[in-house]
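Notebook entry, structure prediction.
Reason for the run: the old model in the group folder had no record of what sequence produced it. Starting over properly, with the input documented here first.
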Amino acid sequence: MRNMRIRIVSNLLVIGFIKSALLSASTFASDKAPFKYVWGTAHHILPKTHSDESGYFSLCEGNDGRIYVGTAKYNHNAYLVEFDPVTTEQRIVIDAHKACELDAKGYAAQAKIHTRNFVGPSGIIYVGTKQGYAKEGDNSKYPGGYLITYDPRNDKSSNLGMPYKEQGIADVVADEDRGLIYVVTCEDQHWMKYNVTTKKFTEIGPILTPYATTLVSADGKAHALTKDFHLATYDPSTGKVIERKIEINGKQFIRPNKSAIPTWNLATNGHTAWLIIMNDAALISINLSSKINKVTGLNHGPMLEGEGPDSRSALTIAPDGKIYTLISVKNKTGFGNHRLHHLCRYDPIEKIHEDLGVLAVKNPDFFNFNPVNGKKPPWSHGYHTLPDGTLTPLHNHMALIAGRDNTLYATIIYPFTLLKIDTYKKQPDAPSPSKKYFQKIHQQLDRVEKNLPQLTALGELAAERYDKGGLIGFHWFGTTLEQELIGRSGGLMHIGFDRPWKEKKLRTDEEKAQDIAVLAWDSDPKPNELKRLQNIKDSGQYLLGFGSKRNPNLAKHIKLCDSWVDSDTEAKDLSPGKLNHVMNAVSGWVWMAEFIAAHTRKGRMPPVWKSWVMKDGRAWSDRFFRKTKYHKEFSVPPIQEGVLGKEYLHRIRSQLSALENTQSPAIHQFAKTIAAEKRAGRRTLVASSGHMVMNYVGKFSDSMWADNVEVHENLESQLNNFKKKSTRDGLVLRLGYFGLSNKIDALFKEKKNRVLLMTAENPLPEFSSYLNYPERVDLGLAFGDACVPIEGYPISLFPPSGVVKAVAYEALNIEILDDLKN
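New structure, fully documented this time:
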């Protein structure tokens, strides 16, 4: 997109401009700007991910609240970078060439992620790659761009293929409910459709306008602007496309010139498109639901007055419905020169335009602009200093989004910058009980990370004992960690004293002396447990305990253990919500991560489970269970201390943030329903499944309203037990796992139960009944569960589901208790 980038190739021009800017700054330092400033904090995008300090429109906020930015590394590769607004840390989440198994250089490389990132309800991020520019003498041929997804739930990128040979990808939008992905190619603007089920691309419509983007309206229809600025509408229910002229204020909408690049977004009502053209500051609305042969729209006037308006994919609609855009105009104020980038806002209810001010950088030292050996850093010419010393963008902004809390993020090039603007951030409401609980969980996750040195040391100790023939196992005290660590997707396969990698009778006394007993307490110990603990100690096993040192009733138990991992929770662990079972599970998995990593540093990799929900899960188990201590067929590079534990914590933070951000309204509604049931004198039956649930559902403060009954579709005894315990027309909370078994759904229907469903996705037809419950709480788990990939191993490690489910349930519980209290 050559006309969208400004390159200054003359060093003399750059140096002259710098001298002029510095002179202006010193001469007019006392002057006051004749316009307001919009202050933002600048963050330099990872330097190794771009070549010319450049990127395009690739910007989005994930369900987890992290920001994702696509980059351009000409002649080499393209990347998607994750930015954490809390820590400001950045990391690569898509390496385009790695995802597509490519190594081409020059013009044949996938040089850009240019598409506006699309985030589906699942949290999956959809992008596409594009060609760069051929240098003189480069005769390589560009093969075509690739459709790539990134799933933050399991940290995986996937290549879905090439929509159109020799064409890059300019836009990607997914309709996850219908299993469709819409793609616009470039440079010829073919409108394509990808069917997720058949995994095939087909062309669906007319040639579109350059840099066209697809909008999917609330009725499921896809819309795009054609080369003639008509509206093309594709109806997936009929497979047909219609093309209609657009009238704005009664006049036909036409493309006035080649620089008329449209940017549009869908309003919260699901049928109004708000649009601005790159070189025209007028804000336009288009009624996508127009039923007549022509489509109608309105011109709402200019967002900004000024000469030479330029708005580059920088229109966004905030959660409150207000429309923000960036527009640069020539600086005719007499205060400095060149161009000024204004943030503008339009309120569609009040019909008010506002020029909020000129972008300004709070932290001008975010990048070292200082000359080295008389030369400015390459590609650092995209900012200038105004007479009052304010650093402001000069050439191009490239994208703008509004986050769910109304924080604005913009990208600026030269150097490639993410500008965070929190001036218009929504002031949070008083935190609800579940909000406080989520906050406490994140504080505890930070505490676990600070405890990584201990967990790493314990991982190394356990790996050494395992290598000498020791087993890690449990004595079944009835706590959650025992159930959480055994038999889990991505968890150690040979864990449990009855699950050695060879026949039990062949184990020597020396090997048994290396055994580690894992013990955990979610609450006060039972009366007989101290005696049992002493007996285990006397048997010679190493005792590794988990629980709160602040609970005085555990003092003697802590002394008997060889090592203790402190959950550091309140002695009674009831306020603002129960934490022990969650934090013991998190610490257990971080310890297990460091155990695996310790093996890799010795050139070893013990087998882990692959989920049995996967087609080849049982075959994987049959291949290695009770047979293989270490893999011979896989070579995993050494993983340094603390790295794998941090990766697991990173995924858990992401999963829990996405749960809070997207599912809190549903959790609150479930709480109201259950509280009302309790007030009516009726209890709620929790039909639970999974590993930890039997040790916390109905066991603690939730016992006020909940009765637990385990229901797994493959156990007839549990199905029969549910039939006995459930009442006709009774309220049932299904605390599920992945999807909803059709067999269990039929059981609910037979009993005419009123069902509140908490579960995650499942693509298998026999578990598809969850789709009949649109008001469900989506646990947001990726199918297959395990969430931490490592190099050299074909499956991911460590499941988040036990932790996420426990947090979701406790968040629901404390909202119910608060409702009943009030």
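Summary: The CA atoms of residues 435 and 660 lie 8 Å apart.
The old model has been moved to the deprecated folder.
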